[in-house]
Write a structure and sequence with these properties.
Residues 1-22 form the signal peptide. By secondary structure, the chain is an all-beta fold. It has helices at residues 8-13, 175-179; strands at 2-3, 23-24, 40-46, 55-60, 65-67, 79-85, 88-93, 98-103, 109-114, 118-124, 127-132, 137-142, 149-153, 158-164, 167-172, 187-192, 197-203, 208-214, 219-224, 227-229, 232-235, 238-243, 248-251, 258-262, 267-272, 282-287, 293-295, 306-312, 317-322, 329-337, 343-353, 355-362.
């Protein structure tokens, strides 16, 4: 029997829920979420096909149905990241040079914030932080009705960001500069969010992009994306472990383009493009203590191209987006997480093209 991670929010706020901490007889015996308001569920950001239009979908826990047109406005192309924070949804749309702010309950547009080539988002202590390729800056957006913004210059082509130990860590890839004849960047910018200033840089490797933090040990998991010479890979994707106490960097033998760290089960969940040689992305887990890696295989579940990973701590769910063939509708898989770190498939549903991020909302009460 495996013990499921308890979800405090769901236990307190929804008396109709089955207890998420109950024992299960098998990995498939996952406590369902039922009898909830229709607007409780997950927003699904679909990147769209290359050059196509992005869209926002919504999976309702009240109806167990997916709506691929949760937002009827035009996001544009190149939607890259999504956050649900407070009563609002924030969406970065890189090619459209904007961050779109929606009301999480009504899904109506509240504000469009113009940022040149925005990439990734982070919520931290009342602000939304966004990286910008167009200006090589980190923007801090006030989440009140004023939506005032400040910024600080970071490295070239800043990508993902995370927070631990009171600091914000920004990866600087330089890949957009390299495409235009420049050079790659190779460092993490360490930002003091109170003063919005750079405290120091940590050199890791060229073209670093993905990052996630083990907040219990203040350790960073950082991936350097592959570097190409024409159509050939000159430097393969590679995962690094960074100790923020002494800035020591340790390299792994493979890459992980998607990283989710769950300190409570002492594991990271990864999507790797080079763990195998079959040209397909691999879904795997990394033990944070032993640093051993295992491919994740589940009975009656077959992934074509794992594309995105999101952990929803409020309900202890791990969500994997499968891009399939990158041109037709993808699939979203939602897993319950056990104390052992094992996963149990809860449900799956067709979504839009290239599902890139999800965010959870509890009806009129929005998780934050």
């Amino acid at each position: 029997m495996k013990t499921k991670i308890n979800s405090l929010y769901l236990s307190l706020l929804a008396g109709t829920l089955l207890t998420l901490g109950a024992c299960s007889n098998s990995d498939d015996d996952v406590a369902p979420i039922d009898q909830l308001p229709e607007n409780t569920g997950m927003f699904v950001l679909n990147e769209g096909a290359f050059g196509g239009t992005s869209n926002l979908g919504f999976y309702s826990y009240g109806t167990n149905q997916y709506n691929n047109s949760a937002f009827t406005g035009n996001l544009g192309s190149g939607a890259n990241d999504l956050l649900v924070y407070g009563s609002k949804v924030y969406i970065s749309v890189t090619d459209a040079n904007k961050v779109v702010v929606l009301d999480a309950k009504t899904r109506s547009e509240l504000k469009v914030i113009n940022i040149s080539l925005p990439r990734y988002l982070l919520a931290h202590k009342g602000k939304i932080y966004a990286t910008s390729h167009g200006e090589n800056k980190l923007f801090a957006i006030d989440t009140t009705s004023s939506f005032s913004i400040n910024s600080v210059a970071v490295g070239k082509s800043p990508e993902q960001l995370t927070t631990t130990n009171g600091k914000i860590y920004v990866t600087n890839s330089g890949w957009r500069d390299a495409l235009n004849g420049g050079t790659y960047d190779n460092h993490i910018s360490v930002v003091n969010p109170t003063t919005l200033t750079i405290e120091k840089d940590i050199v890791v490797a060229e073209n670093i992009s993905a990052i996630a933090a083990d907040t219990t040990k203040n350790v960073l998991y950082v991936n350097a994306s592959a570097i190409y010479n024409g159509s050939q890979i000159s430097k393969p994707s590679k995962l690094y472990i960074v100790n923020t106490a002494n800035d020591q960097v340790e390299g792994m033998s493979f890459g992980a383009e998607k990283i989710v760290v769950v300190p409570g089960v002492k594991k990271a969940y990864l999507v790797s493009s080079n763990r195998t040689n079959d040209g397909k992305n691999t879904f795997c887990s990394l033990d944070l203590v032993s640093k051993t890696v295992q491919n994740i295989t589940l009975s009656n579940v077959s992934f074509e191209q794992p594309y995105s990973l999101t952990y929803i701590p409020e309900i202890a769910r791990l969500v994997l987006g499968d891009a399939k063939n990158y041109t037709s509708n993808g699939q979203m898989y939602v897993f319950g997480l056990y104390q052992s770190g094992d996963l149990g498939l809860e449900y799956f549903t067709p979504v839009g093209v290239n599902p890139v991020k999800v965010g959870f909302t509890f009806g009129s009460y929005v998780m934050r």
